[in-house]
Write a structure and sequence with these properties.
This protein has 92 residues and is an alpha+beta fold. The protein is built from 3 helices and 2 strands; from the N terminus they run ααββα. A two-stranded antiparallel ribbon has the order 1-2.
């Protein structure tokens, strides 16, 4: 087997955050997701900056019980272009 490249040791790599309470972290995440307004505002802010956003919407196919929600990816740059074109149409 071939050997991998050895590191030069010139850069520092963090070992990450140690000692976080997973139950607390999960509770905070759950509360954030359940609060739809704050999440939607953050997604809208990200779209206005041109970032990609994944929107979670209820599945229109109610008989599909395995996937109650589906994720739709929205391209932030395309969103900005669409908003720019609608603003120019609305202003004239």
């Amino acid at each position: 087997m071939a050997k991998g490249k050895k590191s030069k040791g010139t850069t520092y790599v963090s070992k990450g955050e140690v000692g976080t309470n997973r139950k607390l972290t999960n509770a905070i995440r759950r509360e954030y997701i359940e609060n739809g307004l704050r999440r939607r505002l953050n997604q809208y802010k990200a779209l206005r900056k041109g970032k990609d956003v994944v929107l979670t919407v209820p599945n229109p196919n109610k008989s599909d019980t395995r996937a109650r929600f589906i994720k739709e990816r929205v391209d932030g740059k395309a969103y900005l272009k669409r908003m720019a074109s609608t603003k120019s149409v609305m202003s004239s």
